[in-house]
Amino acid sequence: MNNVQEESPRDQKKNRRRLQILEIARGIIAAKGLRSLKVRDVAEAAGCSVGSVYNEFGDFDGVILTVNRETVQALTDRLRGVSDEDPVRQLYGLAETYLEFFSEHANLLRSLFEHRMEDDRPYPDDILQMVMDAFALMHPPLVRLLPDADDVKIALLSRTLFSAVHGIISLGLEERMVAVPPQLLRQQVEQFLDAHLVGLGILPRR
Amino acid sequence: MNNVQEESPRDQKKNRRRLQILEIARGIIAAKGLRSLKVRDVAEAAGCSVGSVYNEFGDFDGVILTVNRETVQALTDRLRGVSDEDPVRQLYGLAETYLEFFSEHANLLRSLFEHRMEDDRPYPDDILQMVMDAFALMHPPLVRLLPDADDVKIALLSRTLFSAVHGIISLGLEERMVAVPPQLLRQQVEQFLDAHLVGLGILPRR
DNA sequence: CTTGAAAATGAACAATGTTCAAGAAGAATC
DNA sequence: GATTCTTCTTGAACATTGTTCATTTTCAAG
Fold first, then answer.
1. How many domains does chain A have?
2. Position B204 in a domain
3. What is the full DSSP assignment across chain B?
4. Which structural domain, as residue segments, surrounds residue B49?
5. pLDDT digit string (tens) for A105-131?
6. Tens of pLDDT along B114-152?
7. Is B4 inside a domain boundary?
8. Whose C-alpha in A84, A158, A179, B110 is 20 to 30 A from the C-alpha of B135?
9. Which nucleotide's C1' sits nearest to the alpha carbon of B36?
10. Which pLDDT band, with edges at 50, 70 and 90, does A13 fall under?
């Protein structure tokens, strides 16, 4: 049985344009923020009609959500690239990588965390799951470092720790708030982890 | 010299309506989120024309920003009410009070942290300052607990700690993400503080 | 080539923020 | 109290932007 679908020229064109629309939307969000994203701008830049955008994504939220989905995917890929050789280093690496990624793609991350659906439509489950999975990446190193602890507790701890790091970074990079210089922020995150890992008994008191 | 401006009947009416508009806007944001706030709804509920809303607040962002200003003011008031008798208890109290306030006014807090201005207009400085001041409320108890530490470092630590707590709470209450049960979240925040204060040498290792 | 299905189009519509000329209301002056 | 001046209020009109859909175009299959 051959499951490989041949891609007709028509589908190729369709896919090419789908990617193009996403690329353009991502570019606008990254450059000028989610609030500056307009259907007509995207359609014009992609050389198609607004109807085609709707045809491809259902509604405008569909475009945003697809960009967000790809953002969290890219984030996860980056976080998975952190070396797991030494579990302590891995924790620092995850936090620092998150900081790097957030610095490089601040507006995309904000779109991911701040976008609200119209009315009371639910946020897509798969994206939420992907975010939770990303935040669970501290789980394996924590398990290694706290072998006697309950696995459920570690899962909770992983989310808590990553959420804390997220708070420090997202507010630290918020240029609206008194902006923290990047180098200082990195140091801030490190010292935060220092203290916390000492508190968890993972690192010795200095 | 008498600096007290008599309030003319006209001003009274104006002020009454200003307050009414804010009350209505706050109610809508709190109940259905910032994205559901519409000028016409506010004007109709306040029994005036849309023009009057603009006359009073300049533009629609003006309404939102005023609500946000009052939100952070209310938050600060609540946080200032935390007892400063015991500095350790004060830190826990600040975190728990923040959790309480966030639970009760989740949509208002989200409006404060997530609202972006049109184009590239800057977010009002006074609001940013108020948020930073609120986050600095951990400073005094930390100074008492770490009398030998550099004051600038403590200021940074205060912001970091509060930002971390903010991250844990805002993501924990995010019903979009896998919602954490309130009681569990409270425990989560407490355990987070436990570990961190141990790490800072403020609490003894248990 | 014909034909039927799928996609693309863009004008029209709908929702919503914004402006402003005209009128109403109130204060100031006599 | 009448007149005049200032200020506020109004809401229709406009501007922007998301959404729909009847029509046209495209193109693969027969």
1. 2
2. no
3. --------HHHHHHHHHHHHHHHHHHHHHHHH-GGG--HHHHHHHHTS-HHHHHHHHSSHHHHHHHHHHHHHHHHHHHHHTS--SSHHHHHHHHHHHHHHHHHHTHHHHHHHHH---STTPPPPHHHHHHHHHHHGGGHHHHHHH-TTS-HHHHHHHHHHHHHHHHHHHHHHS-TTS-PPPHHHHHHHHHHHHHHHHHHTTSS---
4. 10-58
5. 999 999 999 999 987 788 999 999 999
6. 999 987 788 999 999 999 999 999 999 999 999 999 999
7. no
8. A158
9. C16
10. confident
**Can you give the CATH number for the domain in which B31 is found?**
1.10.10.60
Looking at B22, B38, B58, the residue that finishes a domain is: B58
**Residue of chain B whose Cα is closest to the Cα of A197:** B199
Same domain, yes or no: A44 and A105: no
- B110 falls within a domain: yes
Q: What is the mean pLDDT of residues B16-26?
A: 96
Size of interface A-B (CB pairs under 8 A): 102
Contact A168 B167 (CB under 8 A): yes
Contact A192 B164 (CB under 8 A): yes
Instruction: Give, in Å, how far the C1' of D18 lies from the CA of A60.
Output: 8
Same domain, yes or no, for A139 and A72? yes
B166:A165 CB<8 A: no
Q: Which chain A residue lies closest to B176 (C-alpha atoms)?
A: A123
In a domain, B141, yes or no: yes
Average pLDDT over every residue of B74-89: 98
CA atom of A99 to C1′ atom of D30, Å = 59
Q: Tell me which chain A residues have a C-beta less than 8 angstroms from the C-beta of B117.
A: 35
A135 and A51 together in one domain: no
